[in-house]
Design goal:
The complex is a heterodimer. By secondary structure, chain A is an alpha/beta fold. Chain A has 14 helices and ten strands. In chain A, the strands form two sheets. Chain A has an eight-stranded parallel beta barrel with strand order 2-3-4-5-6-7-8-9, surrounded by six helices. The chains are: A alpha/beta, B alpha/beta.
Chain lengths: ~350, ~350
């Protein structure tokens, strides 16, 4: 029997990190149409940190949540419209209710890997509203496999219809992926998914490894357009899955066309594994910190690699962008005192 | 004047209790305490006692002990304002006493909601094990205790690795110390406590292991398949299946569950365990068909794009010959009737 995998394409969400959340309505409309034509099952859009996250602290998006959802909705017919949502940034009344009204099909409610409790009300609310909801555990390398299973079971019990672990820092080796995915598949009765980052060059192989370990949902973005070193590269992954006889429902030629369109219109800088990305992966720090770390390093005259390792020691997580400058200040003070 | 819905519930209770004069006679004039008294089963026992007292003048007094008594009283004025039903605010995690005239105790306090098992396992453990210990201590002080029935769980048998019905004597290996097994492990601990009190203090204790229920008083947001399917049907949302729909469960209607529990008070034997549920399993797909029939329209059933290629065998339903034989009980309300009644109740409540 042919194995089937459900692909979610977060190009227009995770990729927003890569352009400081400045994707335009035209970018969104054109890419949605291209993804739709290629048969991408779920297209995720929004601010890089998800619904309700646009702010001075972590970056103001060019488009409001409602604007980006409206444009995407207008340009997706068969492909489902998905959003990423972290309780805290996102509230039920202010954001989720409006997103439901805006026609979002798939809600991916996320938390740090040890804080699934924060998703209880949001997942429950979406289920009550009859919409599809998945749970997402971010920075999953920061929890042991045992803790990941416990947190995943929480999300399942709240009503999540699928569970995705994110390798937000691109820190996993294939053996890490196999251990975590196989344990989750054994423990859960809902589908398990994997979202890769490419800091150590493992994005595609880790995604394939996840499927071999039992994952049935995979995230991948065009040109790997995502935070830091980017995600697993979608068009590469589709080609690899095709070679492996794994069905995704995505047309290879048309997704290659989508890549061409994206390169022309908004993937102005194709994600590469920069020295900072490597350090981010080694330090186990969120890939999306690359740009603010670079800024802080310049402002305080310190080595950005030192900032990453210092953030790693502090177990910094997404949303703690202010910590970057605190760490940079401390490093600068030490440097001055030396 | 009773509403049509309330009259229906009373009729359901009298139907379930019909034909067993022995049990009714055993309940006459007794004072019954129910911990977890405002949950699904406690609410149905309140309906049953009200119906029996009204119809047969049995003179039963019912004390419902509950952590959330005020909410239940507000929502169930018809029952809460009766002279024969008393609602007492009590968290079983703290020591307490039953009314000294109590002759029967039903310990139904527990947290079957698996969302709480995952998020607050400590509360689940404390409510189940400490709650059991406190109920047993309180029962041990009663001068005229005739029986304590412990509402355990079908989960104590472990997770079946085969299809087919589960008898009281069946058990399946389950690893210890797993967080998501806290409810099962705590319920096993509670059964052990009952065995200790029965042996050391000669308390008259029987155990009921409930399987799956259906009926009014179940909240639609509870994370069980039948609730989710009914909720999606009521809201017109699609019903999403995450497997092939072959998992099978059986469902006992609330009035039958209440009657079986009262029967165990009167006819239960010390140390005996009785399964409580329906012997007729249906798959999730068959369940949806029954809900469609009750709703008189087709469901929008959608299979998850990422469902497993092959679903694991998943059966959970009881073998009931011991309960039938020993307690003299039978399923009175068929699943089709139960779903029809329940769907109507939810429809009118949400209207």
């Amino acid at each position: 029997m042919t194995k089937k995998i459900l692909i979610t394409d977060p190009t227009l969400r995770d990729g927003n990190h890569a352009v400081r959340h400045q994707l335009t309505a035209e970018n969104v409309a054109h890419y949605c149409r291209a993804a739709e034509a290629a048969g991408v099952p779920i297209v995720e859009v929004g601010h890089g940190n998800g619904l309700g996250a646009s702010s001075m602290l972590i970056g103001e998006a060019a488009l409001t949540d409602m604007d980006i959802l409206a444009v995407a909705r207008d340009n997706l017919k068969n492909s489902k419209l998905g959003i990423h949502s972290i309780p805290g940034f996102c509230t039920i009344k202010k954001d989720l209710v409006k997103a439901i009204d805006a026609g979002v099909d798939v809600f991916r409610i996320a938390s740090h890997c040890t804080e699934a409790d924060t998703t209880d009300r949001h997942i429950g609310y979406i289920r009550q509203a009859g919409k599809q909801v998945f749970g997402v555990l971010m920075m999953s390398h920061m929890a042991t496999p045992e803790v990941l299973v416990e947190e995943a079971k929480k999300m399942e019990s709240y009503g999540a219809e699928g569970l995705i672990i994110m390798d937000s820092a691109g820190a996993y080796f294939p053996s890490d992926v196999t251990e975590r995915i196989s344990r989750l598949v054994d423990a859960l009765s809902i589908p398990v998914g994997f979202h890769a980052h490419n800091n150590l060059g493992m994005g595609v192989i880790n995604s394939v490894t996840a499927v071999n370990a039992g994952a049935s949902m995979i995230d991948a973005s065009i040109y790997g357009f995502g935070a830091g070193a980017g995600n697993a590269q979608l068009e590469v992954l589709i080609a690899v899955f095709q070679r492996l006889g794994i069905e995704t429902g995505i047309d290879l030629y048309k997704i290659l066309d989508a890549a061409g369109l994206a390169a022309k219109e908004f993937v102005t800088t194709i994600p590469t594994i920069s020295s900072l990305s490597i350090v981010s992966g080694l330090a186990g720090v969120f890939s999306g910190f690359a740009k603010p770390v670079d800024r802080a390093a310049k402002e305080y005259g310190v080595d950005p690699r030192d900032i990453f390792f210092a953030l790693g020691k502090r177990n910094a997580v997404a949303g703690q962008e202010s910590l970057i400058f605190e760490v940079a200040q401390e490093l600068a003070a030490k440097k001055a005192a030396a | 004047m009773m509403s049509a819905l309330s009259s229906q519930l009373q009729k359901d209770c009298l139907d379930a209790a019909s034909g067993s004069g022995e049990i009714r006679a055993g309940l006459a004039g007794q004072r019954i305490a129910v911990t977890g008294g405002t949950g699904f089963l406690g609410s149905w026992i309140a309906e049953m006692v009200a119906a029996l007292n009204d119809e047969y003048k049995l003179g039963i007094t019912l004390d419902l002990y509950s952590r959330n008594a005020a909410d239940w009283v507000k929502a169930n004025q018809r029952l809460a304002t009766r002279g024969d039903i008393h609602v007492v605010t009590q968290d079983v995690r703290s020591p307490f006493a039953f009314h000294s005239a109590t002759s029967y105790v039903i310990h139904a306090a527990g947290i079957p909601d698996n969302r709480v098992h995952a998020s607050d396992p400590l509360r689940v453990f404390q409510t189940t094990v400490q709650g059991m210990a406190h109920a047993l201590e309180a029962a041990a002080q009663l001068p005229d205790l005739k029986r304590l029935v412990n509402l355990s769980s079908s989960l104590v048998n472990g997770t079946p690795d085969r299809t087919g019905p589960i008898a009281e004597s069946d058990f399946f290996a389950a690893p210890a110390g797993q967080l998501h097994g806290v409810y099962r492990d705590a319920k096993r601990g509670a059964e052990s406590l009952c065995a200790a009190y029965r042996s050391q203090f000669r308390l008259p204790i029987s155990t009921i292991r409930p399987f799956t229920f259906v009926g009014p008083y179940q909240e639609l947001d509870r994370p069980w398949a039948i609730n989710s399917f009914m909720r999606d049907m009521l809201s017109g949302s699609e019903i999403r299946m995450h497997n092939d729909g072959s998992a099978r469960r059986s469902y006992l209607y609330g009035s039958d569950a209440a009657w079986w529990t009262l029967a165990a008070l009167v006819k239960g034997v010390d140390g005996q365990v009785y399964n409580m549920g329906s012997a007729d399993p249906v798959s999730h797909l068959e369940l949806i068909k029954l809900i469609e029939k009750a709703a008189r329209r087709e469901a929008k059933t959608v299979f998850s794009e990422a469902k497993p290629e092959v679903s694991k065998p998943d059966d959970l339903y009881p073998e009931l010959s011991h309960s039938h034989r020993s307690l003299g009980v039978r399923q009175n309300c068929s699943l089709e009737q139960a779903i029809s009644k329940t769907y109507r109740w939810y429809s009118e409540k949400s209207a």
